[in-house]
Design brief:
The chain is mainly beta. The protein contains five helices and 19 strands. The chain has helices spanning 36-40, 56-64, 92-101, 165-169, 200-214, and strands spanning 2-3, 6-7, 11-20, 25-33, 50-55, 70-73, 80-85, 106-109, 114-118, 123-124, 129-130, 135-142, 150-154, 173-177, 186-190, 216-223, 237-243, 248-262, 266-274.
């Protein structure tokens, strides 16, 4: 699929549905880019099942190789993986996402058959979303169902002959408290791998911040497929939002982009936005200023 001569999607047709009667016929076709195979397929069914001391990008390339998906990165330095094992039945993309999470890397499809290991919001959009100006319609939601008052992350440790059952079960842990959740709601997690790059407390703080940030979602529909700078709206870009209706005046991350064309509306783009903190580990440390991720609006003279 090309827009204005630029390839935006290259992949395969997944579903074709032909509906018809005596007077009319309707053909619906849907498909996804090649990275969909990483989502649908189990990782390394014939092995290897464990990676030791490999650079992150090399481990990702090895699990992507059977699917002929090219892997690239715009990050100059990524730490080697000390030890990471594929979990039984885990999909290729689940493994990649888990491996990348420890280093704050975001695996995203480039839409034309490749996988890019990047950081969230490395590019700022040339466009801007202003309710009352270029926004046709909008929706905004705050969801607290995944937020907890206490996050406990337990470390992984290999069982040793000299370890008692009690000592194995009482391993290292990290904790984080969300003071904004006033009733008791505890969440226990297991660290992704034994060689995790963050401390267990940092991992717990990350989980808390992620739950806060991902609970805030917004959707905006604008006219056309391009920004004010004539570039197509693109996922994983930062865009300024000014929406006093819902108290938003800040940069948000484009997490999804849907281009549409209809006889009634012409060309429109529906943009799904999240708080950048929901993906950026560097921004997931506790905000000591007290502003936190819940303060979304600031007047121009603040």
């Amino acid at each position: 699929i090309e827009i204005n001569g630029k390839p935006v999607l290259k992949g395969y047709i997944d579903v074709m549905n032909d509906a018809y009667d005596g007077s009319q016929s309707e053909l619906n076709v849907s498909g996804r880019d090649k990275v969909a195979d990483l989502i649908d397929s189990s990782a390394n069914v014939d092995g290897p099942f464990e990676f030791l001391g490999l650079p992150l990008i090399e481990a990702v390339r090895r699990v992507c190789k059977p699917h002929d998906v090219q892997v690239s990165t715009d990050q100059p330095a990524m730490k080697p993986i000390k030890r990471l094992a594929i979990q039984p039945g885990e999909s290729v993309f689940e493994f990649i996402e888990r491996a990348c999470r420890a280093q704050g890397i975001l695996p995203v499809s480039d839409g034309i058959g490749g996988l890019v290991l990047t950081k969230p919001g490395m590019i700022r959009s040339k466009g801007m979303l202003v309710f009352g100006e270029n926004v046709l319609s909008a929706s905004y939601s705050v969801d607290a169902t995944e937020r907890h008052s206490l996050y406990v992350v337990k470390g992984q440790a290999e069982a040793l002959d000299g370890n008692t059952e009690a000592s194995q079960m009482s391993g290292a842990e990290g904790r984080a408290v969300d003071e904004e959740v006033t009733r008791y709601r505890a969440k226990l997690l297991i660290g992704e791998n034994q060689g995790f790059d963050m401390t267990l407390k940092e991992r717990a703080e990350w989980q808390k911040k992620m739950a806060r940030a991902r609970g805030t979602q917004a959707t905006y529909t604008v006219q056309g497929w391009a920004t004010d700078g004539d570039d197509l709206w693109q996922p994983n870009t930062l865009v300024p939002v000014r929406d006093k209706k819902n108290g938003l005046q800040r940069e948000m991350l484009l997490s999804s982009v849907s281009y549409r064309r209809s006889i009634q509306s012409g060309t429109t783009t529906t943009l799904g936005l999240s708080l950048p903190e929901s993906f950026d580990i560097a921004a997931l440390r506790e905000d000591k200023s007290g502003s936190g991720s819940t303060t979304l609006w600031a007047d121009d003279n603040d």
